[in-house]
Amino acid sequence: MKKKRFLILLLAMLTMVFLFSSVAFADDAEDAENPDPAEEEVKLADGSYTSTTEVPVKLDLTIENGEIAEALITEAKLADGSCIGKAKVPVKVNLTIEDGKITKVAITQIKFADGSFSNTADVPVNDDLTVPVKLELTIENGKITKVVITEVKAEDSDEESNPNFDQDVLDALAKQVLSAQGPDIEGVEGAEALTDAVKTAVTGALEESEKVASDTNPSYDQAVLDALAEQVLAAQGPDIEGIEGAEALTDAVKTAVTGALEQSAKAASAETVTFFGTEMKAATAQMIVGILGLLTIVAIVVTLFKSKTQPAIAFIVWPTILALILICAGWIKGENFSAMIKSGFSSTGPTAALFVFSVLYFGIMTDAGMFDVIINKLMKLVGDSVIGVCMMTAVIALIGHLDGGGASTFCIVVPAMLPVFKRMHMRKTSLLRIAVLAMGVLNLMPWAGPTMRAASVLGIEAGSLWQTILPIQIFGIVLALAHAFLTGLQEKKRGAGLNGKLAEIEGNVDLEEASEQAQNDLARPKLFLFNVLLTIGVIFLLIWGDGFDLPTYFPFMVGCAIALFVNYGFTAKMHKKIINLHAGPALMMCSTLMGAAVLMGVLTSSIGADGKVISAKTMELAADATPSVVRCLAGLVSGVLPSFLGQNLPLVIGFLSVPLALAFDTDSYFYGLMPVIIGIGQAFGVEALPIAVAMVVCRNCATFISPMVPATLLGTGLAEVDIKDHIKNSFFYVWIFSILCMLFAVIIGVMPL
Predict the structure, then answer these.
(1) Whether residue 223 sits in one domain with residue 162
(2) Do 174 and 301 reside in the same domain of the chain?
(3) What is the pLDDT of residues 675-703, one digit of tens each?
(4) CB 346 within 8 A of CB 502
């Protein structure tokens, strides 16, 4: 019966793919089999196209119904033939194509010379001090391709650090200059003087580039340019006779027209893909891939919630089926699948190593009796107060997550509080829910990953974004503590506590089956102080190990070795016994993380034209790249949002952020989905900041219930809770929590109605 249900679910998934694919590309297939002779020759894609050449003219073509209707050639004011090799000054050709026909052609002079140009400007810091900043622009083909802004150190200064300006602010301004292609930038809040100085420096650098270009520009008779434009219009392409005495100019026009049309043809071919052996629009294929991804996620969730298998198996089977479908469809190749899996392992591998050695380390500390002493102290502090235990858990999670690391926080909170919850007959799922809500609020700190990712998408400093969401974070902290208090009331009502109803029914809880033997054979009460200091050292390196360039799992590896040698001597037999005691949980959780590597690799990996995996952190893919399943899903989400919700997009995406967190990993959410949603909002006149606030705040609440986040799997493993039980018991609490934070943001005006 179970096998039948599995096969039925698989068959339904494949049937939906087949039916949807048939409907999606039926029209495209019919057009391909019965082409219209009148349209066969039209191979130009709609849009605007630019071509560059080293010849000093500007060409504008207007194409209608596949024919050039108008051509205009103007002087580009660039170096003549004798100095082209040195000046390398390009001409830019823009083609606007609609319905496969060129409707407009614009050839413009690029007035800036290529090269590197720098300028400095003074920034008044106070009445007695001005600090110069240096701006360097790199220009290629008349376009700014690189911007570097640095603070100029005084020549007599021996200081290597202690700058007056944060480099993150300078980098944010540089990114704005690059985006604006000039000095028209918004600037950074709180750095108005610096912003003005950067604008001045940009203007000066561009003026220098323009002067270099103008010094070598020749003069052309406009009548000659107009005559060449008429020839391009008559020839409907680059096959023109030219003008006697202007051979170099004629060749330049031919090159510019040819380049623009080649780019248009390339774009036209990129708009269609072969999917299941049939030519169809790329957008249609991406929509199908997005639906397949959604079905895969639904299948995983249903399989886990129905307790049909372990998470590791679900994470392996369903993404593999999806990958095979995509290979059969021609969306990816077999070698791409291999690269995707390797990419997934690179993201979850460190967390798996961290889990194995953290479980072993805390197991050793438990065997040695360190936690018994700590638990007894905590029990004396809170007494029989179930509410006190819940409040203490929230406070430890808030403090522990100040570093922004989910894995390290779980390693602090769960080992310390899990024995207390067991002894008090409290649910382990309540422990996790209290912890993840507190951690989600603290995850809004400017050095935490989500805030930094969102700030980079917006092109502003993370600290500036944090100042905007700080009131919401404070409200969230209060809300997290209130939730802990209410959870305590719930647990108390169901009979938790040392002397509660559950204690009378279930009796005292043995924290381990062989606890008495462990106390006799493995307990090391005389080494309590050493073990505490060793644990503090391991946690210190875990949190601040980046300063020593250490991977997160290394402190636990060293800690395990030291703990074994000091507590149990140099005896291989005893070491093997200790390791075997804790091998089961470590293996189970490690296998889950390895399975998650397949899930992450298949869903989040985009493939470049060279067959290499493109990181989810890449916001804009090349035209010839194959977008990941998650990127296709992001496009699907944006496509199904009703247009009438456009003005309220921040509220809509804030409401949907918690469910979306189950489908998107952190990088794909912020670097893949956020830019798409911001672009949609701009079309409706909605500013980017409220959308970013909604996506950061509301999604953060759900970070540590998502199976797409490796730290979530670490936390559930340490707490001895199935991922499905964690999601089931936390999802609606987290969703309501995020909605309350969003409503508070609306009340204080951060998010408009």
Answers:
(1) no
(2) no
(3) 777 777 766 778 888 888 998 999 888 88
(4) no
